[in-house]
Fold each of these.
Amino acid sequence: MEITNIIPRKVLDSRGRWTLELDLVSKKNKYTASVPAGKSRGKYEAKQYDIEKTLRFFPEFKKQLVGKTYSSQDELDDFLIRISGDKKQNYGVDLSLATSIAYSRSKKVKPRGLPTPMFNVINGGLHAGGDLKIQEFMVVPHKLDSYSEKLNAGVSIYHHLREKLEEKYGKSAVNVGDEGGFAPPIKETHDVLELLEIVIGELGLLEKVSISLDCAASSYFEGGKYLIDNKKFSPAEYVDYLSNLASSFHVFSVEDPLEETDFNGFAQFLKGSHSKVVGDDLTVTNVSRLEKAYEHKSINALLVKPNQIGTITETLKAIDYCKKVGWTWIISHRSGETIDSFIADFASGTASPFIKAGAPARGERTAKYNQLLRLEGLL
Ligand code: PGA
Ligand code: ZN
């Protein structure tokens, strides 16, 4: 494909913040992509600039790409990495990722599978205004058969949970956070886990659905201590506390249980864990950090976010690394999303086992879950 033009525009994301959308134009076609933004961003993620800066960089970025022919995703992405820098510091991650995604739309990719969705039903941490420190409480229907059954289970749980919350805590308890999960005035992690198991149990789904957590623990790590559930823990005490909590419930996975630099702390947690331990801020979809996590035995699962690294090719390398070392992986959205459903196609095209795209509600989240329904129809 020869790129004849690139047209950028600023569009709003789900938080009402400006983000980048662009059209990649060839002689015959036009391919569009927009990019998301995280709030609990990992310190080691690729560089993201605000939209004004991104648009200031754009003319120089465009000049280097237009008028050239790229015969494969690899070739384009290699060039994007070369001009943007490893950390995408020269032009920012949004320009390289939007270009990379738009280009991928010029090739037909076959759906190859359907990931199990992880539905975020309770929002805490930086994604909500309450007291809960754990950022995401998810339900994972991993033991149901088809994608549509899994989606149905997620929807039933979401609505039953809404009723329970309203009954117990009043109307304002069902206001939602950034990812569409409820943000109730519950103070302690334990109480949420207990309520979720009640809700899942009342629907007769306890054998089929587990709970997953994203702690995003960097957000409550202060002065060498973990501040959670009205307690202040040393890292060693905290590992015990969290392990006990997780093992008292059907917890399928725990993401970022410790702060983002503590490879050894993750390893301590993993050693005693029955749940999968997922790296997100720790690993930032970057193979050099994956290698470090592997050496330290920090995790056995990876959160894969294309915008932490900035091109499709690098994202695929992170997935290949998981396959090589036997980790499972989860394709992930960000808390600030657009209606671009690329990650749904990507999860299917890479036969990824899991996807997390927020609650089964709000347009920017359901865009992904609905796209997977369409792909299920094709398969
Ligand atoms: P973010 O959160 O998109 O706000 O970074 C998502 C996550 O931590 O998984
Ligand atoms: Zn996370």
Amino acid sequence: MNQKKEYYFPEGFWWGSASSAAQSEGAADRDGKSPSIWDYWYSIEPQRFHDQIGPQDTSGFYDHYKEDIKLLKELGHNSFRTGIQWSRLIPDGQGEVNQKAVDFYNDVFNELIALGIEPIVTLYHFDMPLALQQIGGWESREVVDAFTDYAKICFELFGDRVKFWVTFNEPVVPVEGGYLYDFHYPNVIDGRRAVQVGFNEILASAKAIEAYHKMELGGKIGIVLNVRPTYPRDPDNQGDIEAALAKDIFFNRSFLDPCVKGIFPKKLIKFLLENEVLPEYSKQDLKIIRDNTIDFLGVNYYSPSRAKERETKLELKEGLFMPDIYFEDYVWPEAKMNPYRGWEIYEKGIYDICKDIIENYDNIPFYISENGMGVESEERFLNEDGIIEDNYRIDFIKDHLRWLHKAIQEGANCMGYHLWTFIDNWSWCNAYKNRYGLVSLDLDTQKRTVKKSGRWFKELSDNNGFAE
Ligand code: BGP
């Protein structure tokens, strides 16, 4: 008889999911919330959003949080990452605190804790208050200081109960989206400004960490990075190897190194010097970054990254620097693709990240803070009982968990696995095109229906793993 293979995880492993405030709350202009860059961008360019659905039409967590938190419990969550919307808590970005927001977030965290679900709370998830974007957003030192104050206010208000804080979700995305590749507001394409934005986010994160540690609230603070293991087209070709290395340095190590080790990669500094695009900084900034590293890391993993030596000359807009002068993106012809999102699915990537953390980042405690699969037109998979049979999602999760399990067996210090996300939610420019949830959302009625994967996820969590 064939022996079953077992994939069980360490005791106390976090099973749950991640969401973000801006993508789930809705109530975008109610109860004192002011516009974020998303509300504003949608108001001026709705055609940039799938089906012209904007951030006011979300899964309505602001009104449905009680039933949603019960659902989390039913889905086997022992932990859940959500966030605070800066533009709800402090409508002008700095200054007065909105009491209605305080009440709302208090209630959310209390409900989670009452049901035994550990809240992990993100402070910044792409959602700059418009008032602060108008004074320069992450390019501005004033905004760095405003973020530090906002973080302190959150720790003071909720830090007695929230024991896991995340300063930023994927800080490289505002750099790429907002300042390099035009998929976030303010749609700038300028490598020099992008470098400043990245530096200021890292500094803001370190300053928030410094403040949190000083307050001695007994919890932990970290950051969530989207780590994309970067592979060369041909592993034996020096040009391809160097291209992959450069891409890795610009988009992974540029954040991993300062956040985990407190220093920037030497090679990154060399690239920036070569192009005369070092950010404005002071010695004191570097000291703050060096002395205030994270307690834990969140790793979002969807897709690997691939690169080849440049084959075409990059035309630089007005001569402005772009990191792409050092590499060209490469699509592996044999890649397994998620055709809806256009992202490669490469399960072993999760293992390679774990090995990298063990070998190069002192095996810092980390968890998989997002992994998931967005699929279009899921109503195709409705069964007679009106349940979406999303076997592909179950397979996707299992395929990644097998590799994660192997890495843990080999010593990775991984604390948990969170899916993106528990209920179909609004996604940045894609709105509701691709559905990621364990629970489906009827956009017209706001009705929630658990998918097959949701039931399976509950078993997964109850059993702390699976056998097959
Ligand atoms: C991550 C973000 C999430 C989420 C997810 C899915 O990068 O942290 O906010 O949106 O990706 O991506 P998308 O919604 O673009 O399909």
